[in-house]
């Protein structure tokens, strides 16, 4: 059951002057239920690859299939709609909306999708139980620690029951205790709810917990602990 299939994907910046192959002919295949870390030095292309897979950016070559649909072929409007329904995003700087409570932040995507209030309420309660923050639903982000804000961001990413979650350096701004706690929650969601995670990190504490480690150097995948399911070509 393949959720992500990136084929021959490249992204070149500064094509007109000094071209930078941020992503250079990458093939990546992710199955439902994986817990995979994307690692590599700063500038190796991790953010670019996540943005291409998440449809936040378009590749110069290649295709990105999400559940067998090539998202590089979607119009801008269709892509926005597709992302909302199918992909959960977690960012390094949490990106919660400061004027909304934790609950309202999580509920917003469901409201945008026209999900009715009674259904939203049940889902929100469940998500806050899963992130172990049922007592903090009505608090604004500024009153939460970084670790708590990131857990709310994970709940928000899961609100619309996406096919998978992409997380760009989710622990980069967290102290060790909060980072472990976030990892525990992500691991539990992966094991118990079969949520698929693809996350970038250069945090050794996080890498140790991943089941699959995909290493990027200069825009190419140079190693993949699940190499049997990933071919890379020159
Ligand atoms: P990482 O996330 O691994 O740090 P990035 O994906 O951010 O790597 O960057 C990969 C390469 O692409 C780097 O050389 C970076 O400077 C370059 N790059 C990323 N975004 C842009 C951009 N918008 N314009 C030009 N170069 C970029
Ligand atoms: P990361 O935290 O992944 O290392 P960066 O700090 O490298 O991310 O990049 C942050 C933002 O700046 C990204 O949106 C990226 O696309 C953009 N960016 C990175 N490198 C360049 C560059 N050389 N020129 C223009 N934009 C860049």
From TrEMBL:
**SUPFAM superfamilies in alphabetical order:** P-loop containing nucleoside triphosphate hydrolases
Please give the SMART domains that the UniProt record associates with this protein.
AAA
CC annotations in GO:
membrane protein complex; plasma membrane
According to the entry, every stretch annotated as the ABC transporter domain falls at: 4-234
Domain of life, per the record?
Bacteria
MF terms (GO), sorted A to Z:
ATP binding; ATP hydrolysis activity; transmembrane transporter activity
Q: Keywords in alphabetical order, please.
A: ATP-binding, Nucleotide-binding, Transport
InterPro entries named among the record's database cross-references: AAA+_ATPase, ABC_transporter-like_ATP-bd, ABC_transporter-like_CS, ABC_transpr_LolD-like, MacB-like_ATP-bd, P-loop_NTPase
Family per record: Belongs to the ABC transporter superfamily. Macrolide exporter (TC 3.A.1.122) family.
Task: Report what the protein is called.
Answer: Putative ABC transport system ATP-binding protein
Q: Which organism is it from?
A: Chitinophaga polysaccharea
């Amino acid at each position: 059951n393949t959720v992500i299939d990136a084929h021959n994907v490249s992204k070149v910046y500064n094509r007109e002057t000094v071209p930078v192959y941020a992503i250079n002919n990458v093939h990546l295949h992710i199955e439902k239920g994986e817990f995979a870390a994307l690692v590599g030095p700063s500038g190796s292309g991790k953010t670019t690859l996540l943005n291409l897979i998440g449809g936040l950016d378009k590749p110069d070559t290649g295709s990105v299939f999400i559940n067998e649909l090539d998202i590089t072929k979607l119009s801008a409007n269709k892509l926005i709609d597709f992302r909302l329904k199918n992909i959960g995003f977690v960012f390094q700087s949490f990106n919660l909306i400061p004027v909304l409570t934790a609950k309202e932040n999580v509920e917003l995507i469901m409201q945008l999708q026209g999900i009715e209030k009674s259904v939203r309420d049940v889902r929100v309660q469940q998500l806050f139980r899963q992130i172990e923050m049922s007592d903090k639903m009505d608090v604004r982000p500024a009153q939460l620690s970084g670790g708590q804000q990131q857990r709310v961001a994970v709940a928000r990413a899961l609100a619309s029951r996406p096919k998978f979650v992409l997380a760009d350096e989710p622990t980069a701004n967290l102290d060790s205790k909060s980072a472990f706690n976030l990892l525990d929650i992500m691991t539990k969601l992966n094991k118990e709810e079969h949520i698929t995670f693809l996350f970038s990190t250069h945090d050794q504490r996080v890498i140790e917990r991943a089941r699959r480690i995909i290493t990027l150097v200069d825009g190419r995948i140079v190693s993949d602990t699940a190499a049997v399911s990933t071919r890379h070509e020159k």
